Amino acid sequence: MPTIRGILPLLLIALLGGNGCAWIKSISSSTPPKTQPVPTPPIVDKTRPAPRSLESELQSIFTADNTAITEVAKWIEENNTFIRTDPIRRDRLAQRIRMRLDRVRKLYLAFIEKYPNHARARAAYGSFLAHLDDQQGALRELKVSAKLAPFNAAVQNNIATHLGTLAVESGRHARVGELLEAYQKAIRLAPRAPLYRHNYAIALSLFQKEASAHLKLTPRKVTEKALKQITEALRLDPNNFEIAADLAETHHHFKPLPRKETLAAWQHAATLATTDDERGWAELQMAIVNIETNHFEDAKQHLEKVNVEIYRKLKQRLLSAIERTPKQKPAKP
């Protein structure tokens, strides 16, 4: 299930406005209905420990932040029906949310005014702004944090994350090279962290054209690079279904589609599934691979295993597509 912090930006869109685009994971077609990963917890500076009073003050802000986010998510859940049907109640709830979150914002701003060079506070405030879908503000704070703590891999990862979000929201990809370099730096600083390699691989696939120009590689070489990174991520976190599913999805960027390797990757992902939704998603993807390579009977067998309500319409569309498609000779594996 999505975490409160993961779902909050999406829930606030209708209430507080904004473009409401979640990060790459929400956009990638391989990922089952999930939201972006929970941002890294407040970051430890590579400096002297903070005085106890300062640290206590900062921890109280973190507590207030988490409490506010939890309360807002609860309010939205309790008023979910009215948000869409009652404009007056929706506006009142929006105002209530603004006032609640503004209290936390003021706490961060007051602390940063007193301690402008506190890297953890800057990074935490950046995360807070990201949850409100203020990606520009989040990026600004993260860049300040990166200057104050230049060897922190988590900050570099989050900078890349926000640059990617801005690129997708705006449709302008001029800073894709910058986000790729931020991911590369995160990986250099923390080579055994699977999340950074996973995110980098997804960025390479999502922004393949821009990555090809920036890295001076052919599109196929970019896909091979993405596959290498995500394979290493899965090696570091071998039981992670989401990484395994995105690894399988990466094969779809090869032309022609390598049926044997792609099916094997999805079959492995299916063995890591822990929910019916995840298993159903893997079976759907294996059906799609077989449809694309004209193995229609195999596709039907996979679709028969999909019994999850959220995929019912997609399953039916695929079955209808099979029936409408003229029978062709199966493509070579």
Short description:
This protein is mainly α and 333 residues long. The chain is 72% helix and 0% strand.
Please tally the β strands and state the result: 0
Question: In angstroms, what is the radius of gyration?
Answer: 22 Å
Number of helices: 17
N/C terminus separation? 36 Å
CATH class of the domain at 120-238: Mainly Alpha
- Residue fraction in strands: under 5%
* Named CATH topology of the domain at 120-238: Serine Threonine Protein Phosphatase 5, Tetratricopeptide repeat
Q: Assign the CATH superfamily of the domain at 120-238.
A: Tetratricopeptide repeat domain
CATH architecture of the domain at 120-238: Alpha Horseshoe
Helix content: over 70%
Tell me about the largest β-sheet.
none
Structure classification: mainly alpha
Order of helices and strands: HHHHHHHHHHHHHHHHH
Mean pLDDT over all positions: 84
Global geometry = globular
- Uncertain runs are 1-47
Features:
333 residues, mainly alpha, Serine Threonine Protein Phosphatase 5, Tetratricopeptide repeat, 17 helices, 72% helix, globular
What this model shows, in words?
- The protein is mainly alpha-helical.
- It is built from 17 helices and no strands.
- Among the domains are: 120-238, Serine Threonine Protein Phosphatase 5, Tetratricopeptide repeat, CATH 1.25.40; 239-333, Serine Threonine Protein Phosphatase 5, Tetratricopeptide repeat (Alpha Horseshoe), CATH 1.25.40.
- The radius of gyration is 22 Å and the shape is globular.
